[in-house]
Amino acid sequence: MRLTIDHGPYKGTRAHRLMIITMFIVLSSVSSLRAEVPPKNTRISTSQQTYSTYCGIQSLHRAMLSLDMNLPFESLVVRRYIGTQKGSSLSELRLAAKENGLYTLPLYHATTTSLSVVTNPTLLHVKSDPGNRDFDHWVLFMGIEKGTARICDGFKPMQLVTLADLGAIWDGNGLVVSNKPISASMYYAVSVVLYGCYLVLALICLKFLRQLEARIAGSFSQHSSSFLKNSLATAQQAGVLLALPTLLVMGYNALLPQGFLASHPAIESIQSHYVFTAFYHVNITRVSKHLKAGDVVFVDARFLEDYERGHLPRAINIPPNSTTSQCAQLLTRVGPRTPIVIYCQSLTCPFSKLIGKKLHELGFENLSIFDGGWMNWKEHTDALQGEMRDRES
To answer: Where are the alpha helices (DSSP H) in 67-182?
Structure first.
């Protein structure tokens, strides 16, 4: 027996076929969404072979330092934070952050594009080597600068990685860390309004099609307008059948804890002043002129032991683990408009910007970064001394 649906002057077999195709689309969409939900108890290993078992908690500890939390690293080396010799899982890192007074937001199946809205330090689950099949390592993401991601691998100096290279080794999972509550409510509301506008637009289009069909039916004979009426009716049915599964899939996804309206990184409202990038940058020539003129205050942003091994003349040491209040105490005699040049070890060292951000929060307005750092200055002075010896000989 052949099933047909009567829709007036034409048969409904076309609509029947569209309905069957639409049901297939709905089932496929739901299946793909379910496949993206990470299993609740899945462990994400963090290290293999040459990489440390502690890469996850190393990244978390470095994130804590950037948030003015001077917590001893040894306090994170406990069993409940490192489940196996392969390292920490995402849930274990969340537990470590929570028990030490931090707020977290997990990321699932995010993209490098969505990282552009993340302004807090974020742990990313990556491959230790691009040639590996498994994602077995944790690194710390510290913002995007000029199209490149600032990445810290353990306690190594920060490096700049292109977004394309980062996307090749990152599986989309991560953990945003903050010392303040993280809310996604603002972007959630924006998304709801956006999809509501789409729905209203779809209803207006359907209403317009019905009015157009009525006008055509009144202007032409039934024989000449039957094709147009059938085409418009089919378009209406197709629009309704496509809109319905779209709304169902959106609703299903929105109800998921990992849904795009609930926790997708592109829509969270992470309000933080973690990254302050409006620094001036000076080179070795400018630094030499400032030293001769004595018209700026130099701040050494390295640890005390590095500072004691050698530093720029008259530089004030502010270690990277200093709190904002400690920074203020060390610069009590420096006015807010006094030119300050901050440096650390080398070009890839992140501590100068870290201290610069804290000084900016204290109200210092004239801040500059000496990108080359101590290594650049040491090479410069060694070269000058070599030239002087050559002249004397």
So the answer is: 90-99, 163-169
